[in-house]
Design a protein that fits this description.
The protein is built from eight helices and 14 strands. By secondary structure, the protein is of the alpha+beta class. A hairpin with a 2-residue loop joins strand 11 and strand 12.
């Protein structure tokens, strides 16, 4: 089997016509779709229902054009990140598993090409979020997803996209009724904590950190992070939905994935490092024209630097009471990324706790080999 991966623009919050066109054009079948990672145009907060509307639209297309049951389609991982602040264009990256790539395969038997593995973790209880139990459960799920992808070397994992539950009043009260405590009762802050704890689970599974962190390290020890994690959270599930993206010999795909790290919000070199890691030969000081249409998409996490500085200059988003710092940094890094790759349909997500260094974040890039 081989992976097809294509980016489609969302003309409205419920527009899945781009994926429908790929299906009717024979690029892949509706029953071949194994996962979707997308940006929607809401506020990116706890109450961002644009994620649900987009999810319904894309699952509806799979129901209309395919033969899988509604239950089977419900289980397909779709990680929707809300908020297209600044110049970011709403879009979705669709992954499909096919017998033969569209137009034939260029891969030799020893060539490492794109592969994807999907798994669900054990149930994550409200009291697990922000605590070592969540790290352990996520790590076990990542190991299952790696096995599903046929990846045996952690160095071949370049991107792990997850969706996990955050805390809402209903789940907080459920924990209290059972005599349990929760990490925080601030539901928006619980998004950061859910994402960060998940990233530590990914880091532990991939050997980026040796041990499960102590409770007091979670959310506080910024030296602990993953360079390949992209973690989102929402209200629509109670387990970690895990998509591992890497390269493996014999995969047969016409795509490769690589990764890099942005050291801060202006670090365009980190984006180019990810693209080079995926195998594109670029000049020393590249320009987006050098991509020659071979970049499918880049996926980034970002965070307003908690130290309130950027390359020695004072920064204000964390002090702004009018616009949340999540939205400000997403718009800023989205602009840097779009200018770097020459495309505004880029996946930029916030709440990057334990995902890359303070003030920076991981970058993954998928490119066409041919």
């Amino acid at each position: 089997m081989a992976i097809e991966v294509h980016k489609v623009e969302l003309g409205s919050v419920s527009d899945a016509s781009g994926m429908a066109d790929l299906i009717t054009d024979g690029v892949f079948g509706a029953d071949d779709v194994i996962g979707i990672i997308g940006k929607t145009e809401g506020n990116g907060g706890v109450n961002d229902f644009t994620r649900i509307l987009a999810d319904q639209a894309f699952r509806g297309v799979l129901m209309e054009h395919g033969t899988r049951s509604e239950e089977a389609i419900t289980e397909i991982p779709m990680a929707w990140s809300g908020g297209c602040d600044g110049v970011i264009t709403p879009h979705a990256t669709v992954f499909a598993e096919v017998d033969e790539p569209h137009g034939g395969s260029t891969a030799g038997p020893d060539d490492k090409r794109l592969t994807v593995g999907i798994a669900m973790s054990e149930e994550l209880l409200p009291e697990d979020i922000g605590r070592p139990a969540m790290v352990t459960k996520v790590a076990r799920g990542v190991e299952k997803a790696m096995a599903a992808a046929g990846i045996t070397d952690v160095a071949d994992v370049h991107y792990v996209q997850t969706k996990t539950p955050l805390l809402v009043q209903e789940t907080i009260q459920d924990a209290h009724r059972r005599g349990e405590t929760v990490y925080t009762e601030d539901t928006l802050y619980s998004m950061d904590i859910s994402n960060g704890t998940t990233a530590l689970g990914i880091a532990h599974a991939l050997g980026e950190i040796d041990e499960v962190p102590d409770p007091e390290q979670i959310g506080h020890d910024h030296d602990l992070f993953s360079s390949v994690a992209s973690c989102s959270s929402g209200v629509e599930l109670d387990r970690a939905q895990i998509v591992v993206v890497g390269n493996a010999a014999g995969a047969g795909s016409n795509y490769r994935v690589g990764h890099g790290v942005m050291e801060d919000a202006l670090d365009a070199d980190g984006i180019w490092d990810a693209i080079r890691s995926a195998g594109l030969d670029l000049p020393e000081r590249p320009h987006h024209d050098d991509l020659d249409g071979r970049l499918v998409n880049v996926f980034l996490k970002c965070e307003a630097d908690p130290r309130g500085t950027l390359r020695g200059r004072r920064q204000l988003p964390l002090d702004d009471s009018d616009v949340h710092h999540h939205r400000q940094i997403k718009g800023a890094v989205g602009g840097v990324t779009a200018a770097t790759v020459g495309d505004s349909a880029v996946f930029v997500s916030v709440a990057a706790l334990h995902q890359g260094p303070q003030g920076g974040g991981p970058v993954a890039a998928i490119v066409r080999v041919d």
